[in-house]
């Protein structure tokens, strides 16, 4: 399954928006954290997990989804949220802890929930899988269209919740697709030292569903495989497991010294940065430089507007901390 | 501030914990350590630094992100004669693996009529104050202490951290060792200076189940643990400027709980404030107050008070989180209302 030109450009635009967003967040995050890095300080405090380099998986999958479909995501959720269409301004405001944020500042960057586009995420590893099954089940029971996609990291594929959810999905033939972003690291632990199999797609066999591995951090290849899987789910033919190779160009979190990385790994990954690669490919396929420049400029201003909106928004009253526990 | 033996070695809690583990691993080949990012990385909160280089990957094992798997495995290894120290990176993650902890680790000694033992340490980080939001900032002291069969300790300083870790490893029972992130000495998330203390090089134990009077006073008893102790000490300093003499008790251990030290102190002061970063209801603060009132309510000159985290998930935004957290001013305000 190959993307139309429109779909290709949509993927490119969302990759660029995502990258620019992360760059802007990184810059703002570092404000107030010098000379001594202290996570608690600055306009964006707390942990920050950036998705630089992992954009292809999010866009290759979400290109097949509409607002009605469900995405459950991870502790590293920005690229997934952007590709799913979460409002960028409200997402930025949430990360800045402002009243205009998705939760008014209660949740923060690991807890982005946007019911308008059926997006949610969790900071607990593996916890995207179960809720995706439940949402898929709900659509089945209600005879409503829609599929659910659970994103997770390759480290999360060793969590009990992942295996239980796959068995549930396989047993009940749920319209759900599990998408593993294999960036080969779980914080400092390499995949090979934590996983009994080399590739997680083989695990699908144990749960009665097809499994696919997509090498190369290639948006078009992911688009292809995800398209088949999502179409299958829409037809009621059951779940699929996809593992896609991807690259984490940033540290695990901001402030990570990354001493565990073998020498040269980062340089090698940057040389394979998927965004310039995608641009080259689009040019080779006949897109014009002007066309792509325009996309990049649009991405820049979208991100700039979102960050400005976040900065200029007010904080909620501190006592709002005590509200919204129940609805 | 704390009255401890002095020498020239000021250690952070992180280093004190690592030193205790290292010394116990040297003494006892049955001791081994496992958890996420605890080998080459040295633990996200620095508490296993140097162990991997010294003992290698057989005894210092990075695990998959499979908490149920490796914590249950520690239970099995402990029952088979080993002395595992396992790390649950953040206490908040107990939700994915609690059965291993409270139904297996904590109950197998009892189910065997005392014929089997589960000598393991589960170390886990607690606490917020740095905007890590609702799944990475909890204390959950009461949740663990509520369930029978596991000892629960939480140091407020490096001296106790080392002695408690040594005692926990030598204990024949499961010990949950809860270390507060903001006391840990990791500069990148800020640290309470009062937690970094002179710590002897040679191995020693701090008794599990014994509270400490860390500041003597006669007007009000402030009871806390971990971060709460430092908030209490700061409040006591401010109260002293007004001529109010606060006694501060560091609980050190929640299970067993040294009720006697608290009761004796309140018998003297007649006033009790409990400081607990855990949620307000159904927790340590209620337990301490019940302990005192059950024993002899007539000793109280005023209703006891508690300075705790309100019963809401921990908010991300800094101003909201700070609004919810205990602090010295809230302790002083509680005293003024008495
Ligand atoms: C249940 C649970 N255990 C541990 C953690 C701590 N933790 C946060 S991210 C992470 C690594 C996750 O690796 P992976 O799933 O591959 O995702 P990546 O970070 O590489 O995107 C760990 C261990 C957690 N958040 N939840």
UniProtKB/TrEMBL annotation, chain A:
The keyword Oxidoreductase applies. Transmembrane segments: none annotated. Keywords: Oxidoreductase, Pyruvate, Thiamine pyrophosphate. Residues 14-315 form the Dehydrogenase E1 component domain. Its cofactor is thiamine diphosphate. It catalyses: N(6)-[(R)-lipoyl]-L-lysyl-[protein] + pyruvate + H(+) = N(6)-[(R)-S(8)-acetyldihydrolipoyl]-L-lysyl-[protein] + CO2. GO terms for biological process: pyruvate decarboxylation to acetyl-CoA. Pfam families: E1_dh. The keyword Oxidoreductase applies. SUPFAM superfamilies: Thiamin diphosphate-binding fold (THDP-binding) (SSF52518). The pyruvate dehydrogenase complex catalyzes the overall conversion of pyruvate to acetyl-CoA and CO(2). It contains multiple copies of three enzymatic components: pyruvate dehydrogenase (E1), dihydrolipoamide acetyltransferase (E2) and lipoamide dehydrogenase (E3). This is Pyruvate dehydrogenase E1 component alpha subunit. It comes from Salipiger thiooxidans. The lineage of its organism: Bacteria, Pseudomonadati, Pseudomonadota, Alphaproteobacteria, Rhodobacterales.
Automatic annotation (TrEMBL), chain B:
Keywords: Oxidoreductase, Pyruvate, Thiamine pyrophosphate. The keyword Oxidoreductase applies. Residues 11-186 form the Transketolase-like pyrimidine-binding domain. Its cofactor is thiamine diphosphate. One of its GO terms (molecular function) is oxidoreductase activity. This is Pyruvate dehydrogenase E1 component beta subunit.
């Amino acid at each position: 399954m190959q993307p139309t030109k429109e779909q290709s450009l949509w993927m490119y635009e969302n990759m660029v928006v995502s990258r620019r967003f992360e760059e802007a967040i990184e810059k703002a995050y570092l404000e107030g954290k010098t000379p001594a890095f202290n996570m608690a300080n600055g306009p964006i405090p707390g942990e920050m997990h950036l998705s630089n380099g992992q954009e292809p998986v999010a866009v290759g999958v979400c290109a097949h989804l509409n607002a009605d479909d469900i995405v459950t995501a991870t502790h590293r959720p920005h690229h997934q949220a952007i590709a799913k269409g979460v409002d960028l301004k409200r997402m930025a405001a949430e990360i800045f802890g402002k009243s205009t944020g998705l939760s008014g500042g209660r949740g923060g960057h690991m807890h982005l929930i946007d019911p308008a586009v059926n997006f949610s995420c969790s900071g607990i590893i593996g916890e995207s899988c179960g809720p995706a099954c439940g949402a898929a089940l709900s659509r089945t029971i209600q005879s409503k269209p829609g599929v659910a996609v659970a994103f997770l990291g390759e480290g999360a594929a060793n969590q009990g919740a992942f295996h239980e959810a796959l068995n549930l999905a396989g047993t009940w033939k749920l319209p759900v697709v599990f998408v593993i972003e294999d960036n080969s690291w779980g914080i400092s632990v390499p995949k090979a030292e934590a996983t009994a199999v080399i590739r997680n797609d083989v695990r699908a066999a144990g749960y009665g569903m097809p499994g696919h591995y997509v090498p190369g951090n290639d948006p078009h290849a992911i688009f292809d495989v995800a398209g088949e899987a999502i179409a299958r789910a829409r037809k009621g033919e059951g779940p699929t497991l996809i593992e896609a190779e991807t690259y984490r160009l940033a540290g695990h979190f901001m402030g990570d010294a990354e001493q565990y990385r073998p020498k040269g790994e980062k340089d090698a990954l940057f040389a394979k940065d998927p965004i310039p690669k995608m641009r080259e490919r689009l040019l080779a396929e006949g897109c014009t430089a002007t066309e792509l420049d325009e996309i990049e400029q649009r991405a820049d201003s979208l991100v700039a507007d979102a960050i400005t909106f976040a900065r200029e928004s007010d904080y909620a009253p501190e006592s709002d901390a005590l509200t919204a526990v129940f609805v | 501030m704390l009255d401890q033996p002095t020498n020239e070695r000021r250690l952070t809690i992180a280093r004190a914990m690592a030193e205790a583990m290292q010394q116990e691993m040297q003494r006892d080949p049955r001791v081994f350590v496992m958890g996420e990012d605890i080998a080459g990385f040295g633990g996200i909160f620095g508490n296993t630094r140097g162990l991997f280089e010294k003992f290698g990957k057989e005894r210092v094992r990075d695990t998959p992100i499979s908490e149920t798997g490796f914590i249950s495995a520690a239970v099995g290894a402990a029952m088979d004669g080993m002395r595992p120290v396992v790390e649950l990176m953040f206490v908040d993650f107990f939700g994915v693996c609690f059965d291993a902890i409270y139904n297996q680790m904590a109950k197998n000694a009892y189910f065997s009529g005392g014929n089997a033992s589960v000598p393991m340490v589960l170390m886990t980080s607690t606490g917020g104050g740095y905007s890590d939001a609702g799944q990475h900032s909890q204390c959950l002291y009461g949740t663990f202490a509520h369930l029978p069969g596991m000892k629960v300790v939480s140091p407020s300083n490096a001296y106790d951290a080392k002695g408690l870790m040594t005692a926990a490893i030598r204990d024949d029972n499961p010990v949950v060792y809860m270390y507060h992130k903001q006391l840990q000495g990791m500069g990148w998330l800020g640290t309470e200076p009062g937690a970094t203390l002179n710590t002897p090089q040679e191995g020693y134990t701090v008794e599990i189940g014994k509270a400490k009077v860390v500041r003597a006073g006669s007007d009000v008893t402030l009871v806390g643990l971990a971060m709460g102790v430092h908030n209490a000490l700061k409040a006591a300093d401010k109260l002293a400027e007004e001529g109010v003499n606060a006694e501060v008790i560091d609980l050190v251990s929640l299970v067993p709980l040294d009720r006697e030290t608290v009761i004796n102190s309140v018998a003297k002061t007649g006033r009790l404030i409990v400081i607990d970063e855990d949620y307000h209801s159904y927790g340590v603060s209620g337990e301490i107050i019940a302990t005192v009132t059950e024993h002899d309510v007539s000793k109280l000159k005023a209703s006891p008070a508690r300075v705790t985290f309100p019963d809401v998930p921990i908010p991300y935004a800094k101003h909201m989180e700070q609004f919810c957290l205990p602090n010295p001013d809230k302790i002083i305000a509680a005293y003024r209302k008495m």
